[in-house]
Design goal:
Length: 407
């Protein structure tokens, strides 16, 4: 097959059915035949080798702010859509020195030690959600993997439990459109409405917290101070929004994809049931094997050459995390799911300056959720009702995943 016949553009996103169902054979072909693939449809360069992906993400000079990308590129058209010159983007799309300032003001709440304090409460959330499942056949996403991360982040933000359902709807609507390069007018309008509702909601929560500081992330943001510098209200709201957009669907997908990998490999399910101390390594392998985020990216900050191919300043570089995680040069037998794999390092949380801020939290939630589920349902199986993958660009996960259980 020549490079010309390799898929590009939308065919390399979950909007395409083949890619959505199983991206790995497609990505393997690309990694073998065109480790630098010029996607002339969405105007970006796609990189799929592990070492290249790793070095692009860790190159501290690269840009992330779509307003610096050349007009017409993937970054400018799709990520920067609607962004104003005068309004700062979220941390994910910010460059130095603003990125460093913002990240240092919020990172204290996400260190391993800070996150570990939420383990007991996360376990309680998992048990509570499991208690609410009243059927032996259920949709794992709707009944379990969806609610757990939303309730945990809502608790961390100190949000009233009565607001949780509303909160989940707003955050789900925002995320679908935030990562969809081709939203319909209807989706665009729904997303703007959800964003505005969340904005107003956070405004009133912050006003309330200022009167009554507590043990929650909004209070942490109000308290945070570095060298006399503090977050202003707009920054706090944008940051709270980012936590929802970046953290909810991804963690749901990790739990869903992880449980699916275990059910597809019953020997692995049994091994984890027999030795729950394997859970940490198992979650790393789940992240490697079927990453919830399939690609991240950067913008070239100068004319450069990557893998021997020239790239002009301002062009979009798309790093395929899913392809990197299955690179046979780095992972022996990459398509095998093995929770005892010795080296489970992966690119699923990106890297460098923008390395996922919520990585420890996502790990902790997945560890607690999956072990809690297995303890409650040691005989869990796929149900004949099957599963459906969602079509959110850059993400991989299911919207429905039916399982059958006997307690
Ligand atoms: C399994 C779950 C998750 C995955 C796979 C994931 C993945 C990622 C990836 C790939 C990036 C971009 C990294 C880069 O380009 O170098 C990122 C950034 C980020 N993530 Fe996550 N994420 C997850 C969960 C979370 C959670 C639970 C939160 C917070 C509650 C979170 C907050 C963030 C933030 C704030 C950023 C931007 C960091 C920056 O730009 O400095 N993520 N994540």
């Amino acid at each position: 097959m020549s490079e010309k016949s390799l898929p590009i553009g939308v065919a390399l996103t979950p909007l395409n059915e083949d890619f959505r169902e199983d991206p790995y054979p497609i990505l393997a072909k690309i990694r073998d035949q065109a480790p630098v693939l010029e996607d002339t449809e969405l105007r970006r360069f796609i990189y799929s080798r592990h070492d290249t992906v790793k070095s692009i993400l860790r190159d501290s000079g690269m840009w992330s702010d779509p307003r610096k990308a050349n007009p017409g590129t993937f970054s400018a058209e799709f990520l920067g859509r609607g962004m104003s010159e005068h309004e700062d983007p979220s941390m994910l799309m910010m460059d130095e020195p603003d990125h460093r300032r913002l990240r240092s003001l919020v990172s204290q709440s996400f260190t391993p030690a800070a996150v570990e304090k939420w383990r007991e409460r996360t376990r309680g959330v998992v048990e509570g959600v499991l208690d609410g499942i009243d059927s032996e056949e259920f949709d794992l996403i709707e009944s379990f993997a969806g609610p757990v991360p939303t309730i945990v982040i809502a608790e961390m933000l100190g949000i009233n439990p009565e607001m949780r359902d509303q909160f989940k709807v707003w955050s789900d609507v925002s995320v679908v459109s935030a990562f969809n390069p081709f939203p319909t007018e209807e989706q665009q309008a729904a997303s703007e409405e959800a964003y505005n509702n969340l904005w107003r909601f956070f405004e009133s929560e912050i006003a309330e917290r200022r009167q009554n500081l507590g043990d929650d992330l909004l209070s942490d943001m109000i308290r945070a101070e570095e060298d006399g510098d503090k977050l202003n209200e707009v920054e706090m709201i944008r940051q709270a929004n980012l936590l929802l957009v970046a953290g909810n669907v991804t963690t749901t997908d990790l739990i869903g994809n992880g449980v699916k990998a275990l059910l597809d490999n019953p020997g692995q399910w049994q091994a984890l049931l027999d030795d729950p101390s394997l859970i940490k390594n198992a979650v790393e392998e789940m992240l490697r094997f079927d990453s919830p985020v399939v690609n991240s990216g950067r913008i070239a900050n100068k004319d450069m050459e990557i893998e021997g191919c020239p790239v002009a300043k301002g062009e979009s570089l798309s790093t395929s995390l899913a392809a990197a995680n299955h690179d046979p040069e780095v992972y022996p037998n990459p398509t095998a799911f093995d929770i005892t794999r010795e080296d489970t390092h992966h690119q699923s949380f990106g890297g460098g300056r923008h390395l996922c801020l919520g990585a420890h939290l996502a790990r902790l939630e997945a560890q607690e959720a999956i072990l809690g589920l297995m303890r409650r349902y040691p005989n869990l199986k796929h149900s004949e009702r099957g599963l459906t993958y969602h079509a959110i660009t850059s993400f991989r996960g299911m919207s429905h995943f039916w399982v059958a259980a006997s307690k």
